[in-house]
């Protein structure tokens, strides 16, 4: 064999090896056509615009098809590819999509996505902000050099209401329409930040004075007085006609799981929550999407708990609204009227799946939704609508129309499938 021929064969060999490394060899089962298609279908005879959550099959990585985390534009809408479990692989897709009546669309997640770098396209956020540089004096946190956002927090044993260690007293989350928060203390109540603007504002709330957000400002204000009630969608246990809150826990951990562009998520773990009748471990996951006032609240309990509940604050002279409840389907209870701290109209609602609910009850201070005992995950939605929102809901009739549309979409979800 000539020297030239040996050199030629050597080069061919290394070329083949290189091709296998870069593209994957057929003998290893890797496909020639690298594509991942997301197919979405609207079963309703009406148009819809919402965020669709899609779990990514694990074997996409095994097949050598790797999605990249990031925020993208496609011809059909915006897509956020997220690695929630931190293993380096995309496991969730959030697709902000507009679909016509009975419309089906599909696009290639590897070829049809263009990265979005414009920060103004961020439409949701979640944050948890704590004071640094100070010290505890009894149950108050004194001094400090300023608030700093953190992703994780074990709530201090000293913490209670008005301890001044957490900006606006707990985590907050928002989209372009509305903001929410809940207290990381014995009240554990959820509250609403009504917004007059369609930009993100939580980063400035409570920076110029601990509770300045109770006063009207150009961005909006705290519009709901929760007090010792369930506020909007808070959780508790209904015992002997009374709602018991999270007054006693061994420890509480809060985690900003996703501060995303079109979806944001907060996870909270309650260890040793004790009421007068039970002691339990509870996982709470709150998720907000762009273009939707509703917050999904997913619950997981470690034991069968009778009387586990959520609900709405009950205000005098404010009308209660209810949808028809079928055996297996989504429904709502709501209130609408002059119940905001600004003295104007505010709508509040809980949207629940009838299969998860034991009964709906009137208590002294709350409209209560009591869930069936279970150790399986279940979800409900909470939402508010303030009349001063930009292009917001301003009448009871419009609020009912919005709620009926939300229930219809939940009962007829977008059909999503990842194909490769």
Structural write-up:
- It holds the Pfam family DUF4861.
- It comes from Reichenbachiella agarivorans.
- InterPro entries: DUF4861 (IPR032342).
- This is DUF4861 domain-containing protein.
- The protein has 420 residues and is mostly beta strands.
- It has 3 helices and 29 strands.
- The strands form 6 sheets. Strands 11-18-19-20-21-28-25-24-23 form a 9-stranded antiparallel β-sheet, covered by helices on one side. A 5-stranded antiparallel β-sheet has the order 2-5-4-3-7, with no helix packed on it.
- Strand 18 (251-259) and strand 19 form a beta hairpin.
- The radius of gyration is 25 Å and the shape is globular.
- The model is unreliable at 2-32 (pLDDT under 50).
Task: Summarize it.
This protein has 420 residues and is mostly beta strands. Helices cover 10% and strands 44% of the residues. The strands form six sheets. The protein has a nine-stranded antiparallel beta sheet, with helices on one face.
Mind sketching the topology for me?
Layout: H1 3-23, E1 37-41, E2 48-55, H2 59-62, E3 70-74, E4 77-82, E5 92-99, E6 104-108, E7 114-115, E8 124-127, E9 129-137, E10 140-149, E11 152-154, E12 172-175, E13 178-182, E14 190-195, E15 220-222, E16 236-239, E17 242-244, E18 251-259, E19 263-274, E20 279-289, E21 295-301, E22 308-313, E23 319-322, E24 330-338, E25 345-353, E26 357-362, E27 366-371, E28 378-386, H3 396-411, E29 415-419
Antiparallel strand pairs: 1-6, 1-29, 2-5, 3-4, 3-7, 4-5, 8-12, 9-10, 11-18, 12-13, 13-14, 14-15, 16-17, 16-22, 18-19, 19-20, 20-21, 21-28, 22-27, 23-24, 24-25, 25-28, 26-27
């Amino acid at each position: 064999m000539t020297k030239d021929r040996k050199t030629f064969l050597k080069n061919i060999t290394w070329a083949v090896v290189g091709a296998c490394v870069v593209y994957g060899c057929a003998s290893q089962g890797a496909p020639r056509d690298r594509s991942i298609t997301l197919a979405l279908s609207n079963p309703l005879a009406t148009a819809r615009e919402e965020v669709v959550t899609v779990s990514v099959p694990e074997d996409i990585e095994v097949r050598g098809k790797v999605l990249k985390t990031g925020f993208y534009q496609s011809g059909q809408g915006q897509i956020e590819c997220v690695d929630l479990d931190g293993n380096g692989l995309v496991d969730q897709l959030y697709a902000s999509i507009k679909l016509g009546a009975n419309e089906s669309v599909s696009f290639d997640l590897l070829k049809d996505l263009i990265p979005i770098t414009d920060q103004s396209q961020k439409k949701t956020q979640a944050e948890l902000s704590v004071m640094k540089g100070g010290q505890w004096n009894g149950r108050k946190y004194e001094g400090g050099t300023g608030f700093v956002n953190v992703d994780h927090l074990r709530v201090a044993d000293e913490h209670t209401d008005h301890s001044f260690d957490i900006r606006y007293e707990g985590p907050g989350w928002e989209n372009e329409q509305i903001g929410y928060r809940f207290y990381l203390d014995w009240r554990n109540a959820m509250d609403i930040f009504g917004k007059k603007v369609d930009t993100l504002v939580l980063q400035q709330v409570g920076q110029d004075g601990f509770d300045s957000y109770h006063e009207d400002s150009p961005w909006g204000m705290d519009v709901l007085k929760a007090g010792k009630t369930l506020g909007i969608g808070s959780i508790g246990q209904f015992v002997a006609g009374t709602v018991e809150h999270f007054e006693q826990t061994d420890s509480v951990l809060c985690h900003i799981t996703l501060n995303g562009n079109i979806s944001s998520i907060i996870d909270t773990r309650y260890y040793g929550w004790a009421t007068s009748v039970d002691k339990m471990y509870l996982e709470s996951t709150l998720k907000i999407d762009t273009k939707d006032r509703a917050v999904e609240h997913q619950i997981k309990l470690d034991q069968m708990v009778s009387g586990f509940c959520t609900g709405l604050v009950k205000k005098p002279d404010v009308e209660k609204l209810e949808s028809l409840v079928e055996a297996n389907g989504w429904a709502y209870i709501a209130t609408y009227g002059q119940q905001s701290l600004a003295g104007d109209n505010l709508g509040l609602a809980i949207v629940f799946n009838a299969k998860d609910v034991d009964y709906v009850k009137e208590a002294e201070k709350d409209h209560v939704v009591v869930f069936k005992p279970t150790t399986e995950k279940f979800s409900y939605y909470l939402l508010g609508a303030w009349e001063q929102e930009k292009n917001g809901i301003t009448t009871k009739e419009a609020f009912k129309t919005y709620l009926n549309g939300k229930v219809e979409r939940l009962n007829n979800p977008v059909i999503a499938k990842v194909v490769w």
